[in-house]
Amino acid sequence: MMSVLMAIFKRDMALAFRQRAELLQPMMFFVLVISLFPLGVGPGPDTLQKIGPGVIWVAAILSSLLGMERLFRDDYQDGSLEQLMLSGAPMALVSVVKVCVHWIASILPLIVLSPLLALFLNLTVEMYWALLATLLIGTPLLSLVGAVAVGLTVGLQKGGVLLALLLLPVFVPLLIFATAAVDAAAMQLPYSAHLGLIGAMLLLALALAPLAIAYALRVSQS
């Protein structure tokens, strides 16, 4: 079973990095959105520091949605998804592998870029470390929850708009806790409780999302 899952991981990683244009879209969108905010609200350092965490998190959520639609799209269109279901491999584990590939290919580069953008928005060192912690814990939650919606809409034409409408309200609690953690760090206050809440949501998603993704894919195939 591990060899099958590893083969799926290697195949999906190779396909993801072969499609470089689609791979760069979330990164370019992430950088452009954050770069435009200082032009709109002014270059005042205090203003940028206040809105910076929220701007980075909103940009990360929107950027993740750009690459979310293709999570199962190509496999659905070429019939690979149906073959995976017929192969007997647990779809819950297969979905976890595909979510990991999506996080590594589409979201991890955004986290790597975040130090430069944090300096651009005048975040302090304490604020950046809090932001990095929330991104590392919270962005896998984006991929897991998003994959459930992708599984439900994979068979629809132009399902990207519907996907955004389904997911954006769901991500609001994560956005609130993540920005609150960075705001607490800015005031030299402990933010472990905020990280604990985000971690609890991630653990719940890890327990339930793979089963929900597998069920959603079966519904889409039927």
TrEMBL record:
It is a multi-pass membrane protein. It comes from the Bacteria. It holds the Pfam family CcmB. Keywords: Cell inner membrane, Cell membrane, Cytochrome c-type biogenesis, Membrane, Transmembrane, Transmembrane helix, Transport. Required for the export of heme to the periplasm for the biogenesis of c-type cytochromes. NCBIfam families: ccmB (TIGR01190). This is Heme exporter protein B. The chain crosses the membrane at residues 21-42, 54-72, 93-121, 127-154, 161-182, 194-217. The lineage of its organism: Bacteria, Pseudomonadati, Pseudomonadota, Gammaproteobacteria, Alteromonadales. It is found in: Cell inner membrane. The gene is ccmB. InterPro entries: Cyt_c_biogenesis_CcmB, Cyt_c_CcmB_bac. Belongs to the CcmB/CycW/HelB family.
